[in-house]
Design goal:
By secondary structure, the protein is of the alpha+beta class. Helix content is about 20%, strand content about 35%. It contains eight helices and 19 strands. It has a six-stranded mixed beta sheet with strand order 10-11-12-9-3-13.
């Protein structure tokens, strides 16, 4: 059995009593520090700090970089200005998803791709397969740490520590070379929780000092460390997809609910475009919907969903929502059963329980 990988912050986890780590895609990561519900609530009401240094970062530069990224991603890279980021996906020719990712435009013909930890090797190989001469790629994943400071008080915690005016930083924009506890960082207004917040990229060796400094600075504002458990319940409530559940090689971006980011009308051709165009023209066969249990029970991933005697899909993610206190799920179902109010049944450990299709996202924060 291969040894689990650890982030640069692993030695600091032990300073928090009650921390519990698990194997997450080959990484030993904290599923919780003080409790999933407490951490979830902190992010919704104050702030939470996540160690997401397991994520992958690839630098892409050189002449033709934009054309290359236009070919391999579904979103329109040409609309980006330096200092902007976009959510996107890599697709196979049949429209299945290699991975979902963020594309940061660092400068002219200079980009950073942020990919899922479990897909780093696969994504790297896929991109190398399609990379033209003249485009350079560097895998900076091992040397890069990533902290996510999320919640309504995130800006109040971070602003006193940096010279940049964070109030002027719009969502999916970023600032480079920001000093934070002596470290040079890239700070972006992005996240995976449905809340306001920031993601902080920095050199791996600088991460412990920044992590400790942020927690100390934010303690009076209610900032606490948060783990994978709360990250999952938070992203679920906001209907943010998880690769391997809502998106996969067998689930297209149109089926998985991120069709908005698929720019079929962009001038550049891209891998998977023909298949996705055909899927859209013919009508997407399956759709990701929200379901709420009518009978008492909690939908879990891979539980079958039925209409009458026919299995029409399965649950991709489900739990009792910590914010809403309702038993909710995301399910990939045949499109004919995707209308709001449609009653279905979920097979919960061999017992068919009633549920209905409801609107998503389940949670949407109030904008200032």
């Amino acid at each position: 059995m291969s040894e689990l990988k650890r982030t640069p912050l692993f030695p600091l986890y032990a300073q928090v009593s009650g921390v519990r780590c698990i194997d997450f895609g080959g990484w030993e990561l904290p599923v919780q520090f003080s409790g999933i519900h407490k951490e979830h609530e902190a992010v919704r009401e104050a702030a939470g700090l996540f160690d997401v240094s397991h994520m992958g970062e690839f630098k892409v530069d050189g002449p033709g970089s934009e054309d290359f990224l236009q070919l391999v991603t579904v979103n329109d890279v040409s609309v980006l200005e330096p200092g902007q980021a976009q959510y996107s996906a890599l697709c196979y020719p049949d429209g299945g998803v290699v991975d979902d990712l963020l594309v940061y435009k660092l400068g002219v013909e200079s980009y950073m791709l942020v990919v899922n930890a479990s897909n780093i090797d696969k994504d790297w190989a896929w991109l190398q397969e399609h990379r033209p001469d003249g485009v350079n790629m560097v895998n900076e994943s091992d040397g890069t740490a990533l902290l996510a400071l999320q919640g309504p008080k995130a800006e109040a915690v971070l602003q006193p520590l940096v010279d940049a005016d964070l109030g002027q930083l719009s969502p999916f924009h970023f600032i480079q070379n920001v000093k934070l506890f002596g470290a040079s960082t890239l700070i972006s207004r992005t996240g995976y929780t449905g809340e306001d917040g920031f993601e902080i990229y920095l050199a791996a060796q600088d991460a412990p000092a920044v992590w400790s400094g942020l927690l100390e600075q934010g303690e009076s504002s209610g900032l606490i460390p948060a783990g994978l458990g709360a990250r999952d319940t938070l992203r679920f409530e906001a209907k943010l997809p998880l690769y391997g559940q809502e998106l996969s090689k067998d689930i297209s971006p149109l089926e998985g609910g991120i069709g908005f980011f698929v720019k079929l009308g962009k001038a550049a051709d891209f891998i998977g475009k023909a298949a996705l165009q055909q899927q859209k023209d013919a009508g997407v066969p399956r759709k990701l919907v929200g379901i709420e249990m009518i009978d008492r029970g909690i939908p879990r991933p891979h539980y079958p969903v039925y209409a009458g005697d026919e299995q029409i899909g399965e649950v991709t993610t489900g739990t009792q929502s910590p914010t809403l206190k309702r038993n909710l799920g995301l399910a990939l179902v045949q499109s004919g059963y995707s209308a709001l109010g449609t009653e279905v049944e979920v097979d919960v450990r061999g017992k068919r329980l009633k549920a209905k299709v409801v609107s998503t996202p389940f949670y949407k924060r109030e904008r200032k």
